[in-house]
Specification:
The protein is built from 2 helices and 4 strands. The protein has a single domain, classed as 2-Layer Sandwich (Translation Initiation Factor IF3), CATH 3.30.110. It has a 4-stranded mixed β-sheet, covered by helices on one side. The protein is an alpha+beta fold and 85 residues long. Strand 3 and strand 4 form a beta hairpin. It is an enzyme of class 2 (transferase). Belongs to the sulfur carrier protein TusA family. GO terms for molecular function: transferase activity. Keywords: Transferase.
Length: 85
C-alpha cells in the first residue's frame, strides 16, 4: 500500500500532530500517512495521538535529526470506541 507524505519539518508542537490529524481524516480506513518532522516533542505527541484516536503508529525512525512516523488510519469499525480530537 502506498503512503501519503506530510512534511512537517520545522514545525513545533502541536502543529505536526494537528496537520497529521487533518490529513488522516481525509484518508480511507487502513491508509498510511508518513510524517517527517524535526521537533523531538513529536515522538511523545504521536504516541499519545495514536493511542487516543485508535490510529496505529506502525513505524518510527530517526536519521540526522529528522524523525519519520508512519501512521495507519484506523478502521471505521474501531471508530465507535475512540474519540475524535
Amino acid at each position: 500500500m502506498s503512503e501519503i507524505l506530510l512534511d512537517a519539518r520545522g514545525l513545533t508542537c502541536p502543529l505536526p500532530v494537528l496537520k497529521a490529524n487533518r490529513m488522516l481524516r481525509g484518508l480511507a480506513p487502513g491508509a498510511r500517512l508518513r510524517v517527517i518532522a524535526t521537533d523531538r516533542a513529536s515522538v511523545a505527541d504521536f504516541q499519545a495521538f495514536c493511542r487516543e484516536t485508535g490510529h496505529a503508529l506502525i513505524a518510527f525512525g530517526e536519521e540526522g535529526g529528522t524523525l519519520s512516523f508512519v501512521i495507519r488510519r484506523r478502521q471505521e469499525t474501531d471508530a465507535a470506541s475512540h474519540s475524535r480530537p
